Amino acid sequence: VTAVVAVAAGVLAALAVLWLAGALALSLASVRDARSPTAPAADLAAGVALLATLGMATIVAGGRIHPAGFYGVVAALVAAVAVRKVRRVRGGGGFGVRATRSAPATSGARAVLGAVAVVLALIAVAALTDRLVWDGWAFWTFKARALYLEGTMPAVLLDPDGPYPWTNPGYPLALPLVQWWAFHHAGGATPAAASFAGAMWLVFPPLLLWRGLRERAGELPAAAAALGAAAFWPLSLYAIGGTAEILMAVSCLGVVIELERGPGRSPGGVARIAVFLTLAALAKNEGLALALVGAVVTALSAPGRRQSFLWLLAPFVALSPWFLSTRSQGAGSPHLGELPALLEMLARLPTLMAGLVDLAATRAWIGVSALLVVTLVAIAASWIRARRAVGTTGSVGPAGEAGGAGEAVWAGRGRAAWAFVAGYLAMVMAVYIATPLELDWLLETSLERVMSVMVPAVAYLCLLSLAPLWSPVSAPGGLSQGTVGASASTRSP
Amino acid sequence: MRSAEGAGRARNERGTRPSRGALAAIAASLALALWCGLGLAHTAVALTRPLTEARPDPRIGPSRSMGVPDPVGARMVTLAVNLMDLAPGTEPVWVVMPGDGEAGASPGGGAPGEGAGERAVPVVTRDFVLMQLAHLAYPRRVDVGPGPPAGDAEYAIDPGHGPPVGPGWTAVASLEEATLYRREVR
Fold first, then answer.
1. Among A445, A385, A432, A435, which Cα is nearest to A411's?
2. By Cβ atoms counted within 10 A, which residue in A157, A419, B87, B107 is the most buried?
3. How many helices (H) and strands (E) does chain A have?
4. Contact by Cβ (8 Å): A256, A457
5. Among partner residues B38, B54, B139, which is closest to A134 by beta-carbon distance?
6. Are A214 and A102 in contact (CB under 8 A)?
């Protein structure tokens, strides 16, 4: 028991240092906003992005990584932030914006959040018994163990024709570096430490859903969404399984929340999006696709901001040393290669669609599938009613007033967030269509894992779209106070 | 959720049946409840399952006794034995996994499952075993097979052929078929 507690304490300490590093870095860049729903995750994401960027650059440059090196970076950040704070206080400034915290008002929400805590605690305890899945064990933590033992990524592990081709030599190292960092604090490269580190990331989807939805959709729907995310086993399985999907899921949700809030409106909004996109790009190959889509959508939704545009280059700058180095050694993506013939790609569509439908109907997915269907129907109905209202009166009221559920989010900034998710989904589907690998095998081994990344983000958008059904004052930009089902003609100007 | 309240608000003017908005509120609430409820049930069941559901434990046929003091070494020996049983590209190894109780047939006949609730899945190839062995052995090389171990090997396994090593090697784990030796620190 003592050893298990020591592993847990070590991993928690390791992640706390990463969180501190990220919070300090964002604070130093003047883009930290503790009031943002994504703030806790953005801090840790920034810390991990910092660790991964420095670690991968060191390895590419032929150096060796050591925990003391990153502690030096943290110390430098502490000193820089302290100097800035002192100057501000002397100049009459305060200590900056602090988050205002308030406990859930309703007993129902408190009870549901209690259930969230219980679920997360049970998963964390299970993780301490080593719940690594095959991929987590065979190559994610394998790389982390190599880093732990060697202090670098040996050339033999980067050789796609070497003895370890199954480790995906071209994959970026954010997750193995987090696991390496955790190993050093947990007393050894044990599977339980890697598994428990993954469990700790599971806190963020429920936390961000709660913070992002409680004022917009109401406390009980927000708490229920948090519970749905905490109990969504496909995400939990791979988080404690030691794979990188949970990092991608947190990134995807963080980007969606910031996009929906309006990246140009929130202080540091674009920077936080860039941090999440950087985490994704440094976590997995498909994270680069997520970063590309996210950067384009963010740039289009917050135009005319040169500084914002520079932030959006961060994922690609951070990844470039590793990307160029591994690609020059021939370690590309195993999922992409010579394109099949067009007809062959088209012939894969039915198989892919069948795979998606089968997945959506499974026990773990049927609930979130139903939520998505209800949302899409509500959005479509609202859109049709709004168009009819325009046809009848020649104008339409404020966002949502004519349409009800779905319209408020769809008509506003939520459109960018939906476009981001849809764009990323399209890129993932394109890989399945164009891969030289055998499709059935690839679907069987990856579809649920890859799709689970988007579930918290989609749940957030669904709940926001459906919020008017539960709460009369929930939508952005002044949602209708009235009834969702009221006909547009009775409420249009 | 305030679905009842929403439904009440959303009744149409005649008040005889819920409007489309009320139905949507009910449907949304049900969907959210379904997501949470099924998720909780699924998670509760999944957490009680053994690790092998997520990470198959490769064994050929009936499981081999692991009553040795070094579990990692024993696992390496088992894998090495499995490896030696397989010619490259030939028949697969059977993996015993918890399942629906249907025991599969091992390549040599008979059921490889250890009991009810397990099933055998023919998915493992020589490459799979080699991969696991390499993982366990990394970064020190394991020499598998008869004859003196290679000069850079830290471990040596000689299935079924007796001790392959001379002075400077220590046995750390053994099964009926083979023994794992580790080179002594010089």
1. A385
2. A157
3. 24, 0
4. yes
5. B54
6. no
pLDDT at A248: 97
Which tokens is A462 given?
């669904």
- Report how far Cα A307 is from the mean position of its chain's Cα atoms: 23
DSSP, collapsed to helix, strand or coil, labels residue B93 as: strand
Residues 6+ apart with CB under 8 A from A330: A160, A161
Write out pLDDT tens, residues A5-41. 999 999 999 999 999 999 999 999 988 988 899 999 9
The whole-number pLDDT of residue B24 equals 81
Other beta carbons less than 10 A from residue A43's beta carbon:
24
Candidate from B33, B54, B138 with C-beta closest to A241? B54
Distance from CA of B178 to the nearest CA of A (A): 24
Whole-angstrom distance, CA of residue A205 vs CA of residue A190: 26
Question: DSSP labels for A215-282?
Answer: HHH-HHHHHHHHHHHHT-HHHHHHHHTT-THHHHHHHHHHHHHHHHH-TTTSTTHHHHHHHHHHHHHH
Judged by CB atoms closer than 8 Å, whether chains meet at A370 and B31 is answered as yes
Contact B138 A405 (CB under 8 A): no
Q: Using a CB-CB distance cutoff of 8 angstroms, which residues of chain A are in contact with residue B10?
A: 483-486
Q: What letter does residue B52 receive in the DSSP assignment?
A: G
Beta carbons of A461 and A213 less than 8 angstroms apart = no
d(CA A275, CA A278): 5
Contact between chains at A367 and B9 (C-beta distance less than 8 A): no
Mutation target for B interface from A147, A233, A382: give the one with most B CBs within 10 A.
A233
DSSP assigned state of B11: B
Handedness of CA A491, B3, B7, B9 (dihedral sign): negative
Nearest to B22 among A133, A149, A485 (CB): A485
Judged against a pLDDT cut of 70, whether residue B86 lies above it is answered with: no
- The per-residue DSSP string of A297-339 comes to HHHHHSTT-HHHHHHTTHHHHHHHHHHHHHHHTT---TT--SP
Residue of A484, A489, A491 to mutate, testing the B interface (most B Cβ within 10 Å of its Cβ): A484
Chain A contact present for B37, CB below 8 A = yes
- Chain B environment of A371 (Cβ under 8 Å): 28, 31-32, 34-35
pLDDT in tens, B49-79: 765 544 555 443 333 333 445 666 767 777 7
Cα separation, A490 vs A484, whole angstroms: 12
Between A126, A150, A370, which is nearest B47 by CB?
A126
The residues near A426 (Cβ < 8 Å, ≥ 6 apart) are none
Give DSSP secondary structure letters for A25-61.
Answer: HHHHTT---TTSTTHHHHHHHHHHHHHHHHHHHHHHT
List, for chain A, all residue ranges whose pLDDT scores fall below the cut of 70: 91-102, 303-307, 334-338, 390-413, 471-493
Residues composing chain B: 186
CA B125 vs. chain centroid, Å, equals 14
Asked casually if ipTM beats, i.e. exceeds, 0.90, the reply is no
Whole-prediction pTM:
0.82
Q: Which of A158, A167, A483, A487 to mutate to test the interface with B (most CBs of B within 10 A)?
A: A483
Both tokens of A46, joined, read 């920034």
Question: In the A/B pair of chains, how many CB contacts fall below 8 A?
Answer: 151
Q: Is B3 part of the contact surface with chain A (CB cutoff 8 Å)?
A: yes
Asked if residue A491 lies in contact with residue A398, where contact means CB atoms within 8 angstroms, the answer is: no
Q: What is Dmax (Cα atoms) for chain A? A: 72
